[in-house]
Structures are given as structure tokens and as C-alpha cells.
Amino acid sequence: MLLKRLKGWELPERAVTPESIFQNRRALLKGLAAGPMVLSAAALAGCSDEASAEADAAKLLASVEPDPSSHLYPVKRNPAYADGGPDRPITDSDLATSYNNFYEFGSHKNISRAAQALKIRPWTVTLDGEIAQPKTIDIDDLLDKMPLEERVYRLRCVEAWSMVVPWSGFPLSALVKLAEPLSSAKYIRMETFMDPENAKGQKQHWYPWPYIEGLSIEEAMNDLAFIATGIYGKPMPRQNGAPLRLAVPWKYGFKSTKSIVRFTFTSERPVSFWEELQESEYGFWANVNPEVPHARWSQASERPLGGDGKIPTLLYNGYAEQVAGLYKGMEGERLFT
Ligand SMILES: Nc1nc2c(c(=O)[nH]1)N[C@H]1C(S)=C(S)[C@@H](COP(=O)(O)O)O[C@H]1N2
Ligand SMILES: [Mo]
Questions:
Q1: Check whether domain 13-327 has CATH 3.90.420.10, yes or no
Q2: CA–CA separation, 262 vs 253, rounded Å?
Q3: Cα–Cα distance between 290 and 6 in angstroms, integer?
Q4: Distance 164 CA to ligand 1 centre (A)
Q5: Half-sphere exposure (Cβ direction) of 161: Cα atoms closer than 13 Å
Q6: Which of 276, 32, 242 is nearest to 140 (CA)?
Q7: pLDDT of residue 289 exceeding 80
């Protein structure tokens, strides 16, 4: 079905809103304007023509709650991570917020519209497993406690597209310190929310929901490992993994779990979502390496979103200096797929 672009002035008065919603609206309209697409079941329910699809879209937009953490942004950029490197300009925010992978809302790139159904409050984060004292923290308390800063990172998806974005957030090491892991904790397992009523992709029972990812404690303590709570100087849009997601730029994008509700410290290596689904193609470490192809395609180059062609992919996505030392003595392991 091809949807006509909904113009700003066609939106009902109540949808004329603060900027946070405006941002979401732009992402939504992008989604609508993107051409033929499969709409989520919710948006299509009872829809027999374009007009009612537009009415549904307007209703959805009007019901999107503004993010209560907006007042925290923008935050100061950390000069150590000030840009994406030579010839790597920051990706246009419209692209980074409308071309997404978030399988909870559909197994395609046009999920920004459907992701507006994500309920971001109340939201709690549980720290448990092999730690001094399990705890559950309200997201707004956590945001108040953590040292927020901005960092520009490259992101390289295993599908060979990439982007450069300014994340806001805090070092994952700060969260590890808050958790006080016991010496038996060797890994952190990160879990995404579960809400199939609002995230229709989770009704696709052939996927091993909830989305799980993991890091070793050493990786989590590396300065590059970051919990992102915003992007482009604003709170994290739902489609990019509100209210908090991982950013580990030396690894393929699928390691960067979105919309996390639980961090479990374990002695055993967790099995991640993609590993569970297709172990032969997606291993645990998944570090970027142009010389190690995916089972079905080359990883030698990548397509920057908004760019005009391909560029070479770099070992550890260009972050070897910071992270190569983590893997000393592990050369026999499957570090790169
Ligand atoms: N929970 C969850 N996290 C996820 C995904 C997902 O489908 N679900 N997709 C991953 C993949 S494959 C990529 S490339 C990045 C994309 O992040 P972006 O949409 O903000 O660019 O999110 C990662 N985190
Ligand atoms: Mo990805």
C-alpha cells in the first residue's frame, strides 16, 4: 500500500506540540513518505483506504507522550570523541532516526512509525545476578545519578551500512560500578523489554524474544563502551532504543542492544539473540573486521547512510587502538563474526 505524505497542516491541532514530539513526527512522516511499505497490524486495523490510514497515523502521533528527560539535553561533548574521524561526517539526523533496525517493531528498516507505540515511562532498570545487592532503579533517578556527556561514534551494521552519530549518555563502566559485581561475574547479559501488545514484532514467535546481548566485564569496563540515552542533543527517540541502549562502536551494530530493562552479571557467557537464531552467522564477540566475511557477504566495505558510495571498513571499526588489547591471548577464538 502506498501512503500519501501527511502534511504538517493536515495534522489535528492537538498534534501541534513541543519539539520532542515534533521530532518524532518528522521521523513518522519520513516513514510515511518512504513509499510502499507494510503497515503494522495496529495501524491497519479497520483501515480500508488512505484517508483512514492517515487518520490512524495522526491519532498515533497525537498520543505520543513527550520525553520527560528532555530538560537534560543537550549535554557537553567529550573532546576525546569529538567527531567520526577523517572523511566521516555526522549522518543527517533524519536518516539516523528513520532508517533503523529494531525487530521488536518489524523486520525491516521502516519501523520509526511503529516504534512510537513504545511506552517509555514508567521504566525501570534492574541490576541483578552476581552483584553485591540486586537493585531496580527508576530511569529518571538513574539519569540524575549518571555523568551525562556527548560522544560522536561510528556505527557499523553487520549488513554493511554505517552511520556517524552524536550519542548522549554515560560510560557503561559507571553502571558496572553502581552494580558492584562480585569477582565471580565475568559477563554482563543485557535484556530488552518485552511487550508484544505494543511491539508487534514480538508476536513473531520464530524469534527468541526478548532481545539479549552480552559483553565481557573487561569489554564493559573499556572506556568506549557507552550507554546512550540521547542522540543529536535530544532524548533518545523510541526507534533508536529509548530510553537507554548500548553503543559499542568497535562491534557490529547488533551488539548495541536497544531499550534495555535488565543488566544481569553472570559467570557464564550469555547467548545473544542473533547467536541463538543463527549461530553459524552471528557469534558472541562480533568485532568488526573487513577481512573476515559474513557467511553470505563480504565485510570489506560499507555504505555510509547519506553518502554517495562505499568506503573501506576498518579493523575494530577504526577503534583498534582503544580495544585490540582486550583480545590479547584470545586469537584462537571466533572474535570477528
Ligand atoms: N532490542 C534490539 N536492539 C537492537 C536491534 C533490534 O532489532 N532490537 N537491532 C540492532 C542492529 S542490527 C543495529 S544495526 C542497531 C541499529 O541501531 P539504530 O536503529 O539506532 O541505527 O541496533 C541494534 N540493537
Ligand atoms: Mo545491524
A1: yes
A2: 19
A3: 41
A4: 15
A5: 11
A6: 242
A7: yes
Please give the number of the atom of ligand 1 that sits closest to the Cα of 239. 19
> What cell does 253 get?
551494530
| pLDDT score recorded for residue 23 | 43
DSSP one-letter code for 227: E
From atom 21 of ligand 1, which residue's Cα is the shortest distance away?
A: 100
Residue keyed to cell 492537538:
14
Of the ranges 13-27, 55-69, 302-316, the best mean pLDDT one: 302-316
Is the alpha carbon torsion for 288, 227, 170, 114 positive or negative?
Answer: positive
Site to probe by mutation for ligand 1, drawn from 254, 263, 282 as the one with most ligand atoms within 8 Å of Cβ, is 254
CA end-to-end span of the chain:
37
Q: Which atom of ligand 1 is nearest to the CA of 259?
A: 1
- DSSP character string of 17-74: --HHHHHHHHHHHHHHHT-S-PPPHHHHTT--SHHHHHHHHHHHHHHPPPPTTGGG-S
**172 contacts 214 by C-beta, under 8 angstroms:** no
Cβ atoms of 188 and 265 closer than 8 Å: yes
Determine contact, residues 282/275, Cβ cutoff 8 Å.
yes
